Amino acid sequence: MEQVELSSGSILNRPNETINEVYFPLTCLISVTITMMDGMTVEAGVVGSREMVGINAFMGGRETTQTEYIVQVPGKAMKMKADLLLSEFDTNKSLRDVMLKYTQAYMAQISQNVACNRLHTIEQRMARWLLESSDRLASDELFLSHEFLSNMLGVRRSGVTETAQRLQEKGLIQCSRKKIKIIAPQSLEETSCECYGVIKDEYDRLLRFKLER
């Protein structure tokens, strides 16, 4: 494994590309996005310090499908050749057990995202997204633009700006240019939908560790 620095906006894999390397984020955050024919982009999942990029490498297919992996918060990650991971997956039972449990947790995240994007308000979804990002980065300061957030949430930029303003007026976050700071994480969790707690509990159950605020 090799430690690398990933810069904001870097694309690790595009649709239909062969996955030659996998990444285990340490201090960065990576979005799994889907772009529609009209150019609209929405986030399908997020990958941080308790996840990896490139599960296709050991799931029987080496190509991505419609998904794209974009670095949204720069930082460090561990990079590994996909062939080496597959070899270890085939021969190392302990590693295989962990990777399969992670895959189950990741599938739960994707499934919950579908329901969340369909049923919950922008305010609930933004609160959840900020909490999940904060957990994975182990930081209450998130360096993100409203334009990027609008792409991740699949809403207009004006909707993100208005929602962020409401959360700031409630004293939950503090916004500045390309930075959002979480001021009251417990209150932000109460504002979020149940999806945040559901996914967090599933990760804790399957991977047997808890993230403390």
Task: Give a summary of the structure in a few sentences.
The protein has 213 residues and is of the alpha+beta class. 44% of the residues lie in helices and 24% in strands. It is globular and about 55 Å long.
Structure description:
By secondary structure, this protein is an alpha+beta fold. Helices cover 44% and strands 24% of the residues. It contains seven helices and ten strands. The chain has helices spanning 82-91, 93-119, 122-137, 146-153, 157-169, 185-191, 195-207; strands at residues 2-6, 11-13, 21-25, 29-35, 41-47, 67-73, 75-81, 141-142, 173-176, 179-182. A four-stranded antiparallel sheet has the order 2-6-4-5. Strands 1-7-3 form a three-stranded antiparallel sheet. It has a three-stranded antiparallel sheet with strand order 8-10-9. The two termini are 29 Å apart. The mean pLDDT is 88. Pfam families: HTH_Crp_2. Residues 124-190 form the HTH crp-type domain.
Question: Can you lay out the helices and strands and say which pair or pack?
Answer:
Layout: E1 2-6, E2 11-13, E3 21-25, E4 29-35, E5 41-47, E6 67-73, E7 75-81, H1 82-91, H2 93-119, H3 122-137, E8 141-142, H4 146-153, H5 157-169, E9 173-176, E10 179-182, H6 185-191, H7 195-207
Antiparallel strand pairs: 1-7, 2-6, 3-7, 4-5, 4-6, 8-10, 9-10
